[in-house]
């Protein structure tokens, strides 16, 4: 059940593995579709890692048109600058919260870049900080003076986080990390999260300041849970899978496998975990013995998962629903919701239980969300 890959896709994977593992890339003689490789890397949010190999592998770099090289160089330089800014903002925000006696935990993002061979090449996103329910409102008061813009205070009453900007850097402040699609699963998930975000935290140093990240067992699960939900809802990029893989590679020896397995089983996530593990091993070069609970017999879904990821791009950016947005807020929401539901039906063959739960959740939640958003936007 392998997918027939086009040659630029094979070269893309070879370069990505090379950037993540330090192996030497394989490029067929006479290959010249470098523009396609760069475009694919960009849509997968891994142009930093792939572009770096294109520029710095002596056998390859001489074969790439100068104009494309210049564009990649510009992209990488900009990404490195954003990294510096993100780390600066992160340290500032965490410092202010510490001073106010609020403990925050960094989720995903910069905390995962740390595990890359060259952290500054990981494409930057925003800063996600978990503060929990109790300190959620206090955090707003502490950060408001720093923010160039911050959500309306009413946004505190809805959703899992509110947004603020410090300069051009987006910060999301979370009271919980995610919601699961049924009440019983959500209850278990929130318990697991509370424990993983309060005990056994792993500090990482940024610019000389220690920033907390989640405990290793929880983080291994959370990174996967987050990317799997994106896969079910709007699509994900190879950056998500690279993040997860390098985390497992770097922190594997510290993960309590029994605790992790309990989490996966109690949330009905063991099978998808193994399905995506086969993607890491087959396409991204992870040694099978490093992947917890690796099950080669579950590899039959990997090609379909990969095909979908390559088609849709990171967060589904290659899908029409995101490309042609109109001006009317409610219509955009309705179209996006329709697209999510349609997409969910398309995934029933791959992940029947999970997709079905997600479709139902999207429908029930979608209406509530639009109503809440409308209240915030248009006043009460």
Report Rg: 21 Å
Uncertain parts: none
SSE run = HHHHHEHEHEEEHEEHHHHHHHH
Ends apart, CA distance between termini = 54 Å
Give the tally of β-strands.
7
How does the helix and strand content classify structurally? alpha+beta
Largest sheet geometry:
5 strands, mixed
In spatial order, strands of the major sheet run 1-2-5-4-3
Helix content: 55-70%
Taking all residues together, what is the mean pLDDT? 91
Number of helices: 16
Strand content: 5-15%
Give the CA-based shape: globular
Compact description:
The chain is α+β, with helices and mostly antiparallel strands. The chain has 16 helices and 7 strands.
Quick tags:
380 residues; alpha+beta; 7 strands; 57% helix; 8% strand
Describe this structure in words.
The protein is α+β, with helices and mostly antiparallel strands and about 375 residues long. About 55% of the residues lie in helices and about 10% in strands. The chain contains 16 helices and seven strands. The chain has helices at about 5-20, 35-45, 45-55, 60, 65-100, 110-115, 135-145, 185-195, 215-235, 240-250, 255-265, 270-285, 300-310, 320-325, 330-345, 350-380; strands at about 105, 125-130, 150, 160-165, 170-175, 200-205, 210-215. The strands form two sheets. Strands 1-2-5-4-3 form a five-stranded mixed β-sheet. Helix 9 (about 215-235) runs antiparallel to helix 10, helix 9 (about 215-235) packs parallel to helix 11 and helix 12 packs across helix 13 (about 300-310). The protein starts with 6 loop residues before the first helix and ends with a helix.
